[in-house]
Amino acid sequence: MKYVCTVCAYVYDPAVGDADSSVAAGTPFEEVPGDWACPVCGVGKDMFEQEG
User: What is the overall mean pLDDT for the chain?
Assistant: First the structure.
């Protein structure tokens, strides 16, 4: 399941991860570190909603 930033619409795709923030491909959103921030606008995980 993908997650969308409610501020800038960045999509976190677990299949891709976020290599720039050391989040490996295949990492479910629930396992992304709590201090991770949107790579586009910088808001926290609490500002993301499940896509769909």
Answer: 97
